[in-house]
UniProtKB/TrEMBL annotation:
Residues 11-43 form the B box-type domain. Residues 234-282 form a coiled coil. It comes from the Eukaryota. InterPro entries: Znf_B-box. The keyword Metal-binding applies. This is B box-type domain-containing protein. PROSITE patterns: ZF_BBOX (PS50119). One of its GO terms (molecular function) is zinc ion binding. Keywords: Coiled coil, Metal-binding, Zinc, Zinc-finger. It holds the Pfam family zf-B_box.
Amino acid sequence: MGSAAVMVDMKDLDLCEEHGKAIKFYCEDHSKLCCSTCTFTHRKCDNVDEIKSISLINKPEFQATKHALIKIESEAASFIADCEKSRDELNESIANISDEGDKIKDSIVKLFEEAQQKMFTEINQFKAEVSMQLDKKYTAASQIQEQINQILPMYSAILEHGTFEQKFIFSKKTKEQQNTIETHVDSQRNATVTTNISLSFSRELQALLTMENPIFQMNFDQQCAKIDQSFELQIKLQEEIQKASQQMQMLELEISCLRGQLGEKDQMLTQYKEQLDSQQKNMTLEHQRQRDDLIKQLDHLNSALKHKTSTQPYSWDVQSL
């Protein structure tokens, strides 16, 4: 023996979504569960039965529905697992991208530091060479200055107090020294020393610094987005199909109601036509009777005239007529 049926909490599934009333009927024509208010809309349908009077669903079909729901739930769980896996892969990809960015940045910094170190080495070498040249020039100029400083005091003393012979001899000696000093001065004058340093960058670096497009470009896998869009489109399509189905059901109900109204009007028109036909028939019979009566009266009058004519040919009695 089967266990006794018990009332299960249906979570308001046994209530009409449109009217909030208890579902008591089922319209087979539109495959729709109905409450007492819905039955008024479906009053023209041929197969609207009270649920109590409908045979119970057989167990295999009920079990098949349950198995189908379990299968769908399993697929939903698989979707959830795929989403979690995709989320983990996304986080891992983002972490890898961050690491790659850091590596590129470190490589660029290392390249810049190496170039900077090389630049400082070249600057120090250039500074040492220039400093050496400046030291030589400074030493030569100092020696020239020292020689001149030694000559000038003696030159002034001899010029003021020396004899003619001393002046002549000193003049010749200083002339030779002057030529030597001027030669050193000319050599130092022509030995220019560059002290200005400028920095230039490679064309590749300038192009990198002035490029309009970003140096990083992300490559997104659009497959997931396309799947999501397809899934959303399927959901929207199902919603539109459900809306269209509901609208079709409402249209069918309206058409059924209109057909019922047209049937009632056709019946009224038929009755009215029958009444008109009956009235017309009655009128035709009445006209026929009046016509027959009129013909009889005319025949009677004609007979009377003939009789009068035969008995009194020259006398007319209008009143007798």
